[in-house]
Design brief:
3-stranded antiparallel sheet, Rossmann fold
């Protein structure tokens, strides 16, 4: 609770800008500003963290989305350190609903990068090379955080769902769960895992996003441990197999002897 208070998570928007659907999450109003109920924030935050942890533990990936200035650096840093994906510049229409096209753009980005690394662009006419480099810069800026994403994410984590309404709509259409830092001006009905809180203050955004990233890391570590246990069990099973095969003749001989002894006992 103290961390949330110090980061200013409880500060909402001006009362005149509120969404009435956020009323259940508001504690009070002070100087024309809504104050978010941090007791509720803690409870809903716990649910969101559990969901994130469970998602990555089951090998799911989360797409972090936050294009407002105060979210861009945090989104990139925390998504990267937790080995998730992110969009922090501009949401391209169809990012989810037309993912086949986006996947093609990602392939183009990697193709141009390889050409640049090999020095192939130096062999092209200057204007053509300049155009390709410009295209590469644009692709890296808008899609760089998704470069290794080969399928739709298991969930979205959104900072400011009102601003990211296009991402929210695409996720809803595809039934992809959404976790979101939700300020007093947003519509909570569009969010599966709401985190009532300040989505404008950098400290608040950094704190909550960091917690989401930490949960993603914990889930991924659980997944890795589970896979390691499975691999160990498989190796142990294979190691035991030759011993079972080697013991087969001895077992067969013992069974034969037992049958012969039993037959001798019942023979008149």
């Amino acid at each position: 609770m103290q961390q949330l208070l110090q980061a200013g998570v409880h500060f909402g928007h001006q009362a005149k800008r509120w969404n009435p659907k956020m009323k259940p999450y508001i504690h009070s109003q002070r100087n024309g500003i809504h104050v978010i109920d941090l007791d509720q924030t803690l409870g809903y935050l716990g649910q969101a963290l559990d969901f994130v942890k469970q998602t990555t533990a089951n090998d799911g990936k989360i797409l972090f989305v936050g294009t407002k200035k105060q979210a861009q650096e945090v989104i990139a840093t925390d998504a990267t350190r937790s080995n998730q994906f992110y969009i922090n510049r501009r949401w391209l229409g169809g990012t989810l609903t037309n993912f086949t096209t986006i996947r093609g753009r990602l392939k183009l980005m990697k193709d141009i990068e390889r050409q640049e690394e090999r020095g192939d662009l130096e062999l092209l006419p200057k204007q053509e090379a300049a155009n390709l480099r410009k295209e590469l810069e644009r692709l890296q800026r808008t899609l760089g955080g998704m470069r290794d994403m080969t399928q739709l994410p298991a969930a979205l984590f959104v900072i400011d769902p009102k601003r990211e309404h296009l991402a929210m709509a695409e996720a809803k259409k595809l039934k992809i769960p959404v976790i979101a830092i939700t300020d007093t001006n947003a519509d909570p009905d569009q969010i599966d895992y709401i985190i009532p809180g300040n989505d404008d203050a950098i400290r608040a955004v950094r704190l909550l996003t960091g917690m989401i990233a930490d949960a993603a890391v914990q889930g991924s570590l659980e997944n890795q441990a589970f896979r390691a246990d499975e691999a160990f069990a498989a190796e142990a099973e294979l190691a035991d197999a030759p011993a079972i095969v080697d013991a087969a003749p001895a077992v067969e001989e013992a069974v034969t002897e037992a049958i012969d002894e039993a037959a001798a006992e019942v023979t008149p």
